[in-house]
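Notes from the 1:1 (GR / supervisor)

We went over the backlog. Supervisor wanted to see one worked example end to end before approving the batch request, so GR pasted a single chain during the call. The sequence is below; no edits were made to it. Supervisor asked that the structure be written out right there so they could see what the output format looks like.
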Amino acid sequence: MMKTNKHHVLTAMACLLLMALAGGTLFVRTMAAAYSNACEPLAGVPGLLQAVGFLPTGNCKFNEEKECQHHLCVVNGKKGRCMAILISKKHYCICETKPISR
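Structure output shown during the call:
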């Protein structure tokens, strides 16, 4: 029978761990880019990231029909404007802080 070298096993395990961490980091960054500055409580994984503080929450106001009002808002101390966006076939209201070119 072939003996397994401990160094090779540890190296392989370290590589697998590193790949798993890289994949998890990419997943969180993708979620943060898509759902950042949402003005409403999110569900699922984005909701969990919002609850632990990875995703900042805006302060947009809604009308009686729960539609996003295009007013001024603040998120993380930055001024912005409320915008309705479509993510994964669902409408969300976000506080967009990037300047909009005219």
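Supervisor's comment: Residues 6-96 form one domain.
Batch request approved.
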